[in-house]
Amino acid sequence: MTATVGGAPRQRRAPGERSRARVLDQAARLATIEGLEGLSVGRLAKATRMPKSSVYVLFGSKEELQLATVDAARTSFLEEVVQPALGTGQPGLARLRALCEGYLSYVERRVFPGGCFFVAASAELGARPGRLRDRVATYQQQWRDLLQAQAQAGVDAGELRTSCDPAQLAFELGAILAGTDIISVLHDDQGAVERARRAIGDRLARERRDNS
Amino acid sequence: MTATVGGAPRQRRAPGERSRARVLDQAARLATIEGLEGLSVGRLAKATRMPKSSVYVLFGSKEELQLATVDAARTSFLEEVVQPALGTGQPGLARLRALCEGYLSYVERRVFPGGCFFVAASAELGARPGRLRDRVATYQQQWRDLLQAQAQAGVDAGELRTSCDPAQLAFELGAILAGTDIISVLHDDQGAVERARRAIGDRLARERRDNS
Questions:
Q1: Per-residue confidence at A3, pLDDT binned at 50, 70, 90?
Q2: A157 φ, ψ to 5°?
Q3: What is d(CA A77, CA A136) in angstroms, rounded to the nearest whole number?
């Protein structure tokens, strides 16, 4: 059930779904500034100018609101970073590069005002066991597994040297990207993103097969 | 004014100072789990079993308590990571290595239950302008400046190749360390620290003069 608006197909949503999407969009943005713990039915009602009772009906509890916010942020991350990169070239080095560049661009464009939603959420929840941390940890693991799968594909395709350890390479790229996000947001310094581009370019160049 | 206890010299503190130190120790630990925003006079009174009025007298306001907590965490970081490393060898590569290893050991030993205090604080406050963020940003900048100064000393001493860019190297080391902290805490995975050791060893080996 789609309607075409301005040439682009657009999903038609029931009023409840539209309200839900509006609240979650605000919630994910707010969470990167004030933390997931700062989210509450009252805080979101204020930010979206909806009655508190309506927000409550949509989510029921603070934890459900938080979990739905993490899921909405993941959808955004997939759309902004993962899907464009996986539409690039063949599995392997090209997609690995595109994933890293997509991430840096997502930080640079401040898709979320506090930088990467998942770095902020990881830092906030890392030492707080529970469903919310488990959800964030699962999605973060998927991200690093994706980097590793593309590194492995690069080895299999003969683009990366056979001595390349895909798990180690994926770890290093993931750590540099997360560390860059923190430095870039804390100092409001886009130079950090440029330095990360150089670091990642050098790191990948070292693993190229013609460099072994 | 020191007394010797168990062979070690120990600073004699006035009762107010002792209470203050006790509250700040708890505050810094709590902040890495619940965030600096989670600190309050009431929360600390509960955690230290002191009357709320006594905690209030010591700090006066939530912001003063938060700022004092950041300063206390910095003192701990200097003692745990920076001072031991700067007591190692000569300025240059040996101290750069010791700073990185000191940081990884500090994450590995969970000096703070939520990992590196400053990564947690950076992620929490990055997008919240104010005195607290400025204080954290200043200390984090000092840390990266220190890494850069040791890299520069390594170039000056002829240990690192002349093409080494100390600012870029310091950025990369700082980003890998911060990213490792996040991954290690989120997944409670000490393997991340081992991977970081390997990454840093490889990165520094590439900059060695005999590698140019």
A1: very low
A2: -85, 0
A3: 13
Tell me the torsion sign for CA atoms A39, B25, A188, B203.
negative
What is the mean predicted confidence (pLDDT) over A101-120? Answer: 96
* A175-188 residue pLDDT tens: 999 999 999 999 99
Cα distances from B74 to residues A171, B61, B78, in angstroms, run 28, 20, 6
User: Which residues make Cβ contacts (< 8 Å) with residue B47, sequence separation at least 6?
Assistant: B26, B30
pTM of the model: 0.91
In chain B, which residues have their Cβ closer than 8 Å to the Cβ of A124?
Answer: 35, 120, 123-124
Give the three-state DSSP class for B171.
helix
Q: Which of A124, A141, A188 to mutate to test the interface with B (most CBs of B within 10 A)?
A: A124
Residue by residue, DSSP assigns A42-106 as: HHHHHHHT--HHHHHHHHSSHHHHHHHHHHHHHHHHIIIIIHHHHTSSSTTHHHHHHHHHHHHHH
Minimum distance, in Å, between the CA of residue A183 and any CA atom of chain B: 8
Looking at the domain covering B69-211, what would its CATH class be? mainly alpha
Q: Which of B127, B144, B172 sits opposite A32 (nearest CB)?
A: B127
**Residue A122 with chain B: CB contacts under 8 Å:** 123, 182-183, 185-186
Q: For residues A167 and A148, is the Cβ–Cβ distance under 8 A?
A: yes
Enter the ipTM. 0.91
Chain A / chain B CB contacts < 8 angstroms: 150
Q: Inter-chain contact B124–A123, Cβ cutoff 8 Å?
A: yes
Residues of B in contact with A119 (CB under 8 A): 123, 182
Contact A35 B174 (CB under 8 A): no
pLDDT under 70 in chain B at which residues?
1-13, 211-212
To the nearest whole number, what is the mean pLDDT of chain A?
92
A4 pLDDT above the threshold of 90: no
Question: A70-211 has which fold?
Answer: Tetracycline Repressor; domain 2 (1.10.357)
End-to-end CA distance of chain A: 53
Locate the domains of chain A by residue range. 70-211
Check CB contact under 8 Å for B123 and A182.
Answer: yes
Quick one: how far is CA A24 from the chain centroid?
Answer: 15
- Do B176 and A180 count as a contact with CB atoms less than 8 A apart? no
Q: How far is B19 from chain A (nearest CA, A)?
A: 26
- What's the gap in Å between the CA of B151 and the closest CA on chain A? 16
Hunting for tokens 């063949």 — which residue is that? A90
